[in-house]
């Protein structure tokens, strides 16, 4: 076991050493060490673990363990970020065990068949058991994490391993088909993540980065997961095997964190509504990030509550955390469209139960001449919409972006506006939509957006959702539309909060394209919305409140410890660009980023670029092209892994090509290409 003492590395600065003069709070902190080791699974595969371990202040002192399990390579890609949280909790008396999923990072074994595999979740159970039995452990374990490690924390908790006493999950999911990045709302979504993870999974095992037959067999030569996901275009056992939505309610206590600009935010409500164990929940205004630095703010220090949560469940400290309001939600009070806000106007609302006391619903009906009214149209009528495959770029890559003016998308949508409001309306929850529709082809896709129209005409996106109509009767038994025959579609719009201010109008926008978020359906033509009692929008109203609750004041973010063994050298965050030519019908969406960092004198660089394109006249022929390159310089040994992915669809197939190219010190070592022609199934 390799051991790196943080106290030595920091020159007794950030975490303190004996003899230091410290502030009272810091004086209570523990010194800690970083230790790299392995834990052997039942099949003999050894999983790599980095321990952030407090130094006992008294003989025989033991500590609870907090485990996070990811495939995101703890020794290189995530090393600097992991340190912030490992150091924070270790200094406060917890062992943090950061584990690489088997077949990734420093762990042995072959890359699993996909995310959240049986092997991965079974490994998590075994890891918890072993960690609880360590000599320095008090026998109690928690799991935590953001995104992937939130997903597997929920999945592992469902299995109820005896030593697992509580979890913290930020930006998780209970439903892998409807609420992940592969099929958003049941509709195909080609995300840059799919390319990224297939590239990073093909990197050699750290810390030695050996290029040998074991590496080729277990990593480089493995078929990319992209093919697996594209072959699973409909809901079923593949997606439901580990999705906790379809299992017994959660019986392990859970602290849940969501973001109003995160695509996974609905999981907070889903778990809270069904869990049999205590749950506390917080939903802030940010994107896919922890609350202390998520954008936009306001931000707060969630780790203070996390410590109280862990203290209660893992140390048995009676601190009253369950006697406080269980829900904390940021109420956005409305703002103009913008893509670069650092904070949004609003305030925190703390409440003891969901839904809030005094909640109600407001049902609005689309009328002819683009109006929203509180009663159905007295006469049924039909609005028609020509399908433009490249429309929708203003909403961004998923239902989780800061967005500019939605007017460009609304120009290719059916829009229905309320009269200017005479008083404020606050909403909090998941709006409901029902559409009575007909179409001239067996398959289209619908998208609905809830928007705020200001007196000056600027349009802000509040939330949205996509609808795959083949799943209108059953997600497990998709059925084509019957051309010309009316049918009813229903969906929940993703969780949101918003205040529609006096003078503003509530807008429902209905379209058939949300490019590039949703892969375009293949047939040009026209769809129809039948207006009447079966087409409506329902808003979850809550009593209008003001920021007067001092009990709902959240602590400001604390500085995080900086990893002493590395630093970021250069970073260019993703730059998004969308171009639409109304004359030709061409639409293109691109993004690119790069980052360079150093860890223990080894230099790492990753750069990527992705492009989605479609033409309105030939929507079947949409395309994706992506490139990602990782260049690692390890003790003078340069490893260069480049990947290229192409997806081109037609009316019947997705034509997929993925190439991995490995170079060492400038010389080609291996190149491998996978191709497949995957039939389209209602996507």
Draw up the topology in text.
Blueprint: E1 2-5, H1 6-9, H2 24-27, E2 32-40, E3 46-54, E4 63-70, H3 79-90, E5 95-100, H4 118-132, E6 137-146, H5 148-159, E7 164-170, E8 183-184, E9 187-188, H6 192-200, H7 213-220, H8 225-230, H9 237-240, E10 254-259, H10 267-274, E11 279-284, H11 302-314, E12 327-332, E13 346-351, E14 360-367, E15 371-373, E16 381-386, H12 407-410, E17 414-417, E18 425-429, E19 432-439, E20 446-453, E21 459-467, E22 487-492, E23 496-500, E24 505-511, E25 526-531, E26 536-542, E27 566-581, E28 586-599, E29 602-615, E30 623-634, E31 637-649, E32 653-664, E33 667-679
Parallel strand pairs: 4-5, 4-6, 6-7, 7-10, 10-11, 11-12
Antiparallel strand pairs: 1-2, 2-3, 3-5, 8-9, 12-13, 14-15, 14-26, 16-25, 17-24, 18-23, 18-26, 19-22, 19-25, 19-26, 20-21, 20-24, 27-28, 28-29, 29-30, 30-31, 31-32, 32-33
Helix pairs in contact: 4-5
């Amino acid at each position: 076991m390799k051991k790196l003492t943080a106290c030595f590395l920091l020159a007794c600065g950030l975490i303190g050493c004996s003899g230091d003069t410290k502030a009272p709070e810091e004086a209570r902190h523990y010194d800690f060490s970083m230790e790299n080791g392995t834990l052997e699974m039942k099949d003999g595969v050894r999983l790599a673990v980095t321990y952030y371990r407090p130094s006992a202040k008294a003989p025989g002192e033991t500590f609870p363990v907090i485990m996070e399990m990811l495939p995101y390579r703890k020794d290189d890609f995530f090393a600097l970020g992991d340190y912030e949280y490992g150091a924070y909790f270790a200094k406060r008396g917890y062992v943090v065990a950061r584990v690489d999923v088997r077949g990734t990072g420093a762990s042995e074994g072959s890359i699993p068949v996909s995310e959240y595999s049986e092997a991965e979740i079974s490994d998590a159970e075994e890891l918890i058991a072993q960690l609880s039995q360590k000599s320095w452990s008090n026998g109690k374990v928690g799991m935590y994490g953001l995104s992937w490690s939130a997903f597997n924390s929920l999945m592992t908790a469902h299995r109820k391993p005896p030593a697992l006493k509580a979890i913290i999950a930020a930006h998780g999911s209970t439903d892998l088909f409807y609420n992940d990045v592969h099929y958003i709302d049941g509709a195909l979504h080609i995300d840059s993540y799919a390319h990224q993870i297939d590239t990073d999974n093909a990197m050699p095992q750290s810390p030695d980065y050996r290029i040998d037959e074991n590496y080729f067999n277990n990593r480089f030569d493995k078929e990319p997961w992209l093919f697996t996901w594209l072959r699973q275009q409909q809901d079923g056992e593949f997606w439901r095997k580990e999705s906790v939505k379809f299992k017994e309610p959660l019986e392990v206590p859970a602290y849940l964190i969501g973001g109003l600009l995160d695509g996974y935010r609905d999981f907070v409500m889903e778990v809270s509504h069904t869990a049999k164990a205590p749950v506390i929940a917080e939903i802030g205004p940010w994107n896919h990030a922890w609350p202390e630095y998520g954008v936009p703010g306001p931000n707060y220090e969630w780790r203070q509550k996390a410590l109280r949560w862990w203290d209660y469940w893992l140390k048995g400290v009676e601190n009253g955390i369950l006697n406080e309001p269980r829900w904390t939600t940021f109420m956005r009070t409305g703002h103009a469209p913008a893509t670069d806000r650092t904070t949004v106007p609003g305030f925190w609302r703390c409440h003891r139960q969901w839904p809030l006391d005094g909640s109600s619903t407001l049902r609005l009906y689309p009328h002819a001449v683009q109006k929203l009214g509180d009663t159905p149209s007295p006469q049924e009528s039909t609005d028609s919409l020509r399908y433009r495959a490249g429309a929708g770029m203003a909403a961004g890559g998923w239902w989780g972006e800061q967005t500019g003016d939605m007017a460009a998308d609304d120009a290719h949508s059916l829009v229905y506006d309320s009269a200017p409001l005479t008083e404020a309306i606050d909403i909090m929850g998941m709006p409901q939509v029902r559409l009575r529709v007909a179409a001239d082809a067996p398959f289209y896709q619908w998208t609905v957006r809830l928007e705020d129209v200001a007196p000056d005409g600027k349009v802000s996106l509040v939330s949205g959702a996509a609808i795959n109509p083949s799943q209108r009767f059953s997600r497990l038994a998709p059925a084509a539309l019957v051309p010309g025959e009316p049918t009813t579609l229903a969906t929940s719009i993703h969780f949101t909060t918003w205040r529609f201010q006096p003078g503003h109008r509530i807008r429902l926008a209905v379209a058939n394209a949300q490019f590039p978020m949703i892969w375009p359906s293949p047939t040009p033509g026209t769809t129809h919305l039948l207006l009447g009692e079966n087409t409506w929008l329902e808003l979850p109203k809550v009593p209008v409140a003001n920021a007067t609750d001092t009990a709902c004041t959240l602590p400001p973010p604390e500085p995080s410890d900086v990893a002493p063994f590395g630093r970021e050298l250069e970073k260019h965050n993703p730059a998004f660009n969308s171009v639409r030519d109304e004359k030709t019908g061409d639409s293109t969406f691109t993004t690119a980023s790069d980052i360079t960092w150093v860890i223990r004198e080894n230099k790492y660089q990753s750069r990527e670029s992705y492009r989605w394109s479609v033409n309105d006249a030939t929507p079947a022929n949409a395309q994706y092209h992506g490139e990602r390159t990782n260049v690692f310089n390890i003790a003078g040994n340069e490893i260069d892994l480049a990947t290229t992915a192409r997806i081109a669809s037609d009316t019947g197939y997705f034509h997929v090509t993925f190439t991995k190219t490995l170079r060492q010190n400038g010389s080609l070592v291996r190149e491998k290409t996978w191709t497949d022609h995957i039939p389209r199934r209602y996507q």
